Amino acid sequence: MILTHAKRAVSKATVAVQSAAVLYRAGLADRPDDGIRSILAVHKVGPFAAVFSVGAHRYPNAVAIVDELGELTYGQIERRSNALARAWSQRGIGAGTVVAALCRDHRGLVTTMAATGKLGARLLLLNTGFAKPQLTDVARRECVSLLVYDEEFTGLLDAVDANVDRCLAWVDTQPPAGTDSLEAIVAETDGAPVPAPERPGGFILLTSGTTGTPKGAPREKTSPLASAQLLDRVPLRRNQPMHMAAPMFHGTGLSQVLLSFALGNKVVLCRRFDPEEALRAVAEHRCEALVVVPTMLQRIIDLGPEVLGKYDTSSLRIIFAAGSAIPRDVVTRTMDVFGDVLYNLYGSTEVAVATVATPDDLRIDPSTAGKPPVGCQVRLYDNNGVEVTEQGVVGRIFVGSGLSFTGYTDGRNKDIIDGLLSTGDVGHFDENGLLFVDGRDDDMIVSGGENVYPLEVENLLVDREDVLEAAVIGVPDEEFGQRLKAFVVLADGAEAEADDIKAYVKANLARYKVPRDVEFLDELPRNATGKLLRTKLSQ
122 by DSSP, 3-state: which? Predict the structure, then answer.
């Protein structure tokens, strides 16, 4: 037992040294005093408030964000968040309270993120695609005290308890008389430093909600060394302007914008994604990093050579994509257009980071999820909890990292084995140590006694030039228990028959993996971060 504890201590120390080296290489810890200042700031006010407190000290006049209203420096955001924190504290917001943000990506959301950290409050990041029932359920369950929202979502607010305080973060027109506006509060309140809270603020991220009401996954105080997990295999560095196309309410956008701010970089924000506008932003600001979810990347690539050729995107060094699986053809087409700059993160709201596929990994196999970065462990287990170590054998994926959550806000948790958390996916490792995700554990279809994971069939179908998207589900069958049904979105101008699709699968996969039914759709149902809503296909 003593020897086991000693080995664990040595392992943790080794990871800490390796993580510190990654942070030094990225430019986050090049001076001891700056490193100490950052650690103390995170300890006092949490990561988001800390990056602006440190940034205002190190580079107060550097541009932090660009949105539709113009530029804001690190010093300006620090003063804005001080003012907002001071005003909200007088309204009873502080440690133990929950502030919910129903906002698109803009200065109001960034200021809110920093201000809640300085108050020690928890910030609940709401999906901008919510309908009234979801907003009602989540706001009630998480005991929201203050709702910060964009004007366009005003129509949803009558679903929230009238006792919940409200604050308008973005105004498209003229705010109604008596409306509490974030910008007015900031303009009217002193922006001098505020006292540190009793404990730092934190975040509550929401799961995708593809099978029901999203669950809350809190993110409390984490070690600054955990940032190394996102910098180890993705070369984000100082002086690299970033275009944040992904929504910041999702872990993908949140993690990357936080790292960019920690590096003192400029972040270009957009409230609504448009593929051509994303290219224009990259070209105009000479962005070296572009953060997207896979559906956004596909829409950019689908613009075609004529539109893509209008914009100089040669500055791009990183296209960071996460949130859902990237189709193989989108991976190859992206690298054909932009070069070897694509980095694909595999993880979840609960475990955060699991693996990252680099351009070199994706050249080996476009469908790989890559390898674990420093500080992350990924293991496979069978249904009996026994570790799967054989190459090519499918097992349940479990992950351990300093960014993993400690349980949902409703008290439930994911399965845990040997201290590692289940992702809910199944996968296998190949001879190169690369992870491949074969599908969701609960998506497995048993047809005639054979196990089928839809992702394998879907990946095969999207390899066809005439198929843009594909989804496969199990539907009830009297003879086989379940049979496979494929939903196919054809590329523009393409024509195909159901028999063509079936014959193609039969020629490439086992007989029992051939869909019995094929339905053609104009588009697949997805949520705001691009995750496929299989439940809508089965309705």
Answer: strand
List domains and CATH numbers for the chain.
31-60+74-221 (3.40.50.12780), 374-441 (2.30.38.10), 444-537 (3.30.300.30)
Q: Are 204 and 348 in contact (CB under 8 A)?
A: no
Distance (Å, whole) CA 194 – CA 212 = 40
Q: Is residue 136 classed as helix, strand or coil in its secondary structure?
A: helix
pTM above 0.85, yes or no: no
Beta-strand relationship, 202-206 and 216-219: antiparallel
Joined tokens for residue 151: 């004007």
8 A C-beta contact, residue 185 and residue 166: no
Q: For the chain, 539 residues long, give each residue's pLDDT as a single digit of tens.
A: 443 433 444 456 666 677 667 766 766 655 555 555 666 667 677 788 888 988 898 899 999 999 999 999 999 999 999 999 999 999 999 988 999 999 999 999 999 999 999 999 999 989 888 878 888 888 888 889 999 999 999 989 887 888 899 999 999 877 766 678 999 999 999 999 999 888 887 888 776 554 455 665 555 655 555 677 778 889 999 899 999 999 998 888 888 999 999 999 999 999 999 999 999 999 999 999 999 998 899 899 999 999 999 999 999 999 999 887 888 889 999 999 999 999 999 987 677 788 999 999 999 999 999 999 988 899 999 989 999 999 999 999 999 876 554 555 444 556 788 888 888 889 999 999 999 998 877 777 877 667 788 888 888 898 898 998 898 988 888 777 788 999 999 988 899 999 999 999 998 888 888 999 999 999 998 877 677 888 788 76
